Amino acid sequence: MSQYVYTIxxxxxxxxxxxxxxxSFWPYEQASGLPxxxxxxxxxxxxxxxxxxxxxxxxxxxxxxxxxEGWTARFEANFAAVAxxxxxxxxxxxxxxxxxxxxxxxxLVGIVGGEGHFGDPTT
Length: 123
Fold this sequence. Notes:
The chain is mainly beta. It has one helix at 63-68; strands spanning 4-27, 37-59, 72-91, 96-119. Helix content is 5%, strand content 74%.
């Protein structure tokens, strides 16, 4: 069961067979100022469009700890119109990090997979 809950923003840009996915994390029910941590990811798959969605992440680990420890993650993401779902696993160990659900502005469809890292919001 997930023990860490965050407010998130997902920024996604997809060009048919690849793109970027960035997830910004704030303490739950807060989303002002700089996020504490950002997940920076690149992906391949079949998706097209762009979106800026807001939602919730349920994780098994603290994102600031993941950033400090230098964790990288694999992810699978599903996009349907203005909805975004991302599932994260530790890389290379395969530990379940958690999942996200978000909705908002954009037109984006597809299913992708990729890798990324947890970092500071300015990197």
